[in-house]
Amino acid sequence: LIHGGRTPNNEISSSLYVLSVDSRGCNRKLTLRCKEKELVGEVPSARYGHTLSVVQSKGKTACVLFGGRSYVPGIERTTENWNSVVDCSPQVFLFDLEFGCVSAHSLPELHDGQSFHLSIAREDCVYFIGGHSITSDSRPPRLCRLKVELLQGSPLITCQPFDNGVSISSAVMTRTGPMHKYIILGGYKYDSQKRMECTEVTLDEKGIHFEVLEAPKWTPDISHSRTWFGGSSGEGKAFLAVPIEGRVSQSETHCLYQVSFQTQDDADG
Predict the structure, then answer these.
(1) Once rounded to an integer, what is the mean pLDDT over residues 9-13?
(2) Average pLDDT rounded to a whole number, residues 112-120
(3) Together in a domain, 198 and 87
(4) 44, 61, 106, 186: which could form a disulfide with 172 (CB 3.0–4.6 Å)?
């Protein structure tokens, strides 16, 4: 599932796309298909820096969208703030993928917008971790659990905040096995300070658990760069990209690194 995003031309999308892999024929050739899903109801505005998670409840499946950033609303835009962005309102949007219906929900526990946070889902719960607030220009150590019950008629959504969150934004998360275990790496503590440590996250029936891990031995390019970004590249693996600075003779603009983590199952094997 792909929703929204920002293009190099600074255009922001509100579209939802469904990606699927098709395997047909005697050679079992894999074909990647992309189809736009038409949405009706309380459709969220165009945005980027948000999260979209899948939950399962009562034998049903739905998607939860939260957070993000967008341009100043049209009626408030002036020549001076034309390209200014704001955090989207802290509403939770629930998608019914079968019919394309969307409903918006306001929860008293979610009173501030946030962007570039992380979300992890397990069954009927979604956890929101960290994020950046453009209003306060800060990364509060947020952690809250959203419970979604897909009841007959209208859904029931409740939110529980916790006080053991992580101050982080724009981080990378990779899953480390069939169970609900993940590793968080990359991202920022402050605008001028990258988050160099790594954290293991475990979801179970009791809740969410964090454990600090020993970070890899970062290369000088990674350690000294002011910015970095990346994404998951498979189980226990992630890609990180850092800009090449001070090398005018180089035609490439970024260095790409793969980070691999050894899971407990690998160690036992």
Answers:
(1) 87
(2) 91
(3) no
(4) 186
**267 CB neighbour count, 10 Å cutoff:** 7
Residues 156 and 28 in one domain: yes
Torsion angle defined by CA atoms of residues 223, 229, 231 and 233, in that order, rounded to the nearest 10 degrees = -50
Q: Which domain holds residue 108?
A: 1-169
CA distance 142 to 119: 11
How many structural domains is the chain composed of?
A: 2
Question: Are 13 and 106 contained in the same domain?
Answer: yes
Q: What is the pLDDT of residue 267?
A: 52
Going by C-alpha positions, the residue among 171, 169, 172 that lies closest to residue 231 is 172
pLDDT surpassing 90 at residue 242: no
Strand partners, 120: 127
Q: Are residues 145 and 190 in the same domain?
A: no
Residue 104 phi, psi dihedral angles, 5° rounding = -105, 140
For Cα atoms 184, 187, 191, give the angle at the middle one, nearest 5 degrees. 155
Is the per-residue pLDDT at 232 higher than 80?
A: yes
Choice between 79 and 219, residue whose per-residue pLDDT is larger = 219
Residues 62, 131 contacting (CB under 8 angstroms) = no
Give CA–CA dist 89/112, Å, rounded: 7
Q: Which amino acid is it at 119?
A: S
Residue 221 has pLDDT above 90, yes or no: no
3-state percent helix, strand, coil for the chain, nearest multiple of 5: 5, 50, 45
Q: CA–CA separation, 109 vs 163, rounded Å? A: 13
CB contact at 8 A, 97 and 72: no
The arithmetic mean of pLDDT across residues 153-175, rounded, is 91
Q: Are 257 and 237 in contact (CB under 8 A)?
A: no
